Amino acid sequence: MARSEVITYSYQNVEEALAAVNAQDRGRYFLCTCPECKQPEAFIYKNNPQFLQCNRENVCGSSIVFEYEENKKVNDWKGKQDVKDPEITPEQRKEIDLVTKLLKHIQYNTENKNLESFRGMSRNTTEAFILDLEKEKLVKKMFEIAPNIFYSKKTMQQEGKKINYAAIPDMVKRNIVLPIYGDNGMIDRILLRSTIDPNVSKKEIQLQVNPKSTARDYFKDIPEKATHIVIGESPIDAYSFREIDSDVGIYALTGSRKWRKVIEDIKSNKEALQDKVFIIATDNDKAGIEANENIKKALEEENLNYRSFKYQLEDIKDTNEYLQKNRLEFKKAYEAIKNNIWDKNLIDAPKLEQRLVINRLYRSDQENIDRTQFKVSYEGLTLHNIAIDNPPGIVNIPGIEANKSVVEVGRRMEGFLKHIAQKAPKNQDYQDIVIPTKNSKPAKLKMLSYKKENDMTRKVSFQIGEIIVRDAEVNSLPSGEDPMVFYPRHSNRTTLVTGTEEFNRDLIKFVKQYEKNMDKQPIVKQRFNESNLER
Fold it and tell me: How far apart are CA 283 and CA 253, in angstroms?
C-alpha cells in the first residue's frame, strides 16, 4: 500500500476492488467496507470507481484511491453503469456557492459576540476559523439551502431515505461552525459544535460539503511574513498560537490521524516553505505523540526544518488548555522554541554540507565526568549513544573492536558535535534540534568493502557523507527475495546505527548495482576502497 495525498490501494481491475471491499449496489453508489477501519460505512460512487470515502468522519474518515492495472478498462466500466452525473452535480455546485456566501457573511460581517474570549482567544484571533450561527433557525436554514449536500448519508445507506439535517433535532443545535475553505475560496468541509446545547451527543462532528475527492480536510492559514508555521491537531489548538503571535502560520489537522494531506500540501509548496520552521504541536497524549513522530519523519524526508512543542507544565492535554490555564507559561514555552537557544550557538559552529538533526541531547556529570550524550540523524541514518567528554572533547562511539570503529564520523561532524557539547547547558533534555544548511545536496553512497559470505548474506562497509558504517549485513532469501539490512551492534547489544526505510531501500539497490558491476569484471570477489572521510 502506497501513500500519497490520499491512501492508495492497487487492484487488477474494478471488479477485484469491489469484491475486496464487499461492495453492495445502492443505485448511484456502492456501500462498502472501509479498508482502514473495517466498518461497512464507506461508499464508492459509480461515476468515480477509483475513489472510496469512509463516512465515519469523526472516527476514521479515510479517503482512498484505487489504482487499477487494467486502467484502460475503467472508462469502459463506467460507461456501463448508465450514470451521467460527474463527481459533483450542477445542483451541488450551486448549493456550495450558497453555503459559502452564508458562512462568510456570518464569519466576517457580523459581530459574533458570543465568540469573544472563546476558549481564551479574542475575536480578532477566532474570526479566521470559527463563526456562530447563534440560533437553531439559522442552522436549519443552512441545511435547507443545500438539500443535495446536507442529508444523512447513514440513513440513505441503511434505509434509502434522504433526510435533510434540518429535520434532525440534534443537528440544528450545532450553531458553532468551523469552516474549511478550498484554494478556490469555496467551502469544502465544516466542523460543527454546539453552545445551544453543550450536552449534545458528540462534542464535534465533521461534514464534507464538497463531495469531490480533492475536498480539503485541514485548515491552512500562512501569512506571507510568517517565519514559523504551527502544525496543530485541531484548529482551536493551532490558532491558540495566533493569540500570542499574530504572524505565525497555521496548519490545523481535523484529527490526529489526518496528517497525510497536510504533508502532501507541504510537499506541493515545498519551495515556498523551504526557509520556514515548522512547530509540531500535537496533543500531549498517545495519539498526539504518534502523530508527532509521523509528522517529524515526513518533514525530515523532505529536508524541512522543524521543532516539537514542549509541554512544560504537567497535566496539560493540548495547547489550547495550556493557553487557558496559564497564558504566561504558554507564551514562554512558545517563545523558547521559536527563539531557540541553539540559534545563537550555531552561528559560529563548524558548517556541515548536509542537514543534520540532533534527535536528543543531554549534558550532565557522570562519575565526575562532564559528559554530553547525543542521538543524531543524518542522510537517512540515525547514530545512537554518542558521548563527548568535556574537556578535552573526546568523542566516544560504542563498538570499538580491534582498533577499528564500527561507526565513524568525519572531522566536520566531529567538530560540530564538540562545539555543541561544550555549549549545552547541564541537566536539560533537548530534542529535535534541526541544523539546516543552505543548498544542501544529498550525499552519495560509496562502497568501502564488500564480501559475499553465502547466497543469503552480503557484508558491506560504506560511507555516506560524514559517516562510515562498517560490517552491515544485507540478508535475503537464497533467491534474492525480501532483502533486509542489519546494522552492527555493540557486544552488549547496544544499538549503534539504524536506517530509515527509504535509506535501507537505497542501500539494497546500491549493493545490487555494485554486484552487477562486479559481474562484468571476472575473478573479483571482494573490493576495498579508501574512505575520503576527513579526519
Answer: 11
